User: Fold these one by one.
Assistant:
Number 1:
Amino acid sequence: MGQWFKIDRTRPEVKAGAVFRCRLPSHVVETVEVIEVGPDAMGVPHVKYNLVVAGGTISSFAEMRTLGLETFASRYNEPVSV
């Protein structure tokens, strides 16, 4: 089966262990660590990740989430050195 989604080579690679950040206008910062990248039952690539949210009026919280690879890469596009 061929690859049907476009890969943007200018983005940092989304792979297990990678850490990314998303800064929101409300001074909230979402920091994520990729746990796993792989296809769902329909073959669509998804990212499982740990999310930590802090800043603004939020003290802090953390949870595990899953997003489609393209959505994840669009939102979390600031790599963080670990």
Note: The CA atoms of residues 44 and 68 lie 7 Å apart.
Number 2:
Amino acid sequence: MPDLKSQPVAETLDVLGRVCPYPLVLTKKALEKMASGGILKIICDAPASAEDSIPRYAEKQGYEFESVKLEDKGYWELYVKKS
């Protein structure tokens, strides 16, 4: 199965500059509106959200999750596939 970042993204959510809990709240809202099988790409620079709250939420929901840390840009690209 190909990794999530190489699949077509249904929606991109930019939460740069936002701190907890906003990235997670906005992620939940975006996923609620998406159809099953859709992939949400989240651009996030808050370590607590990128490394803890969003991955934990995705796991709890049973969604596929992938994180790509872009060191040179100082943010993460998070991919969540809604099941």
Note: The longest helix spans residues 47-61.
Number 3:
Amino acid sequence: MTTPAEDPARSIPVLPSPDIASTRDFYRDELGFGIVGPEMEDYLIVRRGEIEIHFWKSDDRKLPEVSSCYIRGGEVPALHAEFSARGVKELSPFLVRPWNMKEFYIRDPHGNLLRFGCAPEEV
């Protein structure tokens, strides 16, 4: 049995997807996420290390265009290098932003914005 200290509470983004199958394929094949749990037509859970993102089926194709999540930590520089080597489309440069975070962005095929960042000293 795990204790609360061994299983801390965390926040997990739940993003809209108009096509769960193509979302699954992008996160698995392009970004290297694993699929968690049973495959469903209206819900998807992907995980890569400690990064977990959920997707719900939405018929409103505009929702992903205004949805995003932020992924932060010391692993971010290695992720940018890997995604760059994989040729991930929509990958932005890895830059220090005016708010003093080094960040890069990816838009998934439906428009959800994934923002990755770390403190510049973590690079």
Note: The helical segments are 20-30, 76-86.
Number 4:
Amino acid sequence: MSEQTPLLEFPCAYPIKVIGHGDANLRERVIEIMRVHAGEFDETIITERASSEGRFVSVTVTITATGKPQLDNIFTDLKATGIVKMVL
């Protein structure tokens, strides 16, 4: 039997891209959720980009991920906001 190598080794820098409605306070809500699950992180490297028509915005945040349960909780809370369309 061969042993599989894990795809990620925790802790690691992990970028999370969140896509949501352009008229919502997406950035602020994403930051709130990240603080709950990841503590403090460098907010100066958050990137934000609007779609060509301005209907959607993507926010990318890089956190120090500690494990799959942490990432699962972040994804669940982001999706539960009602303003997030997709999390990558």
Note: The mean pLDDT is 92.
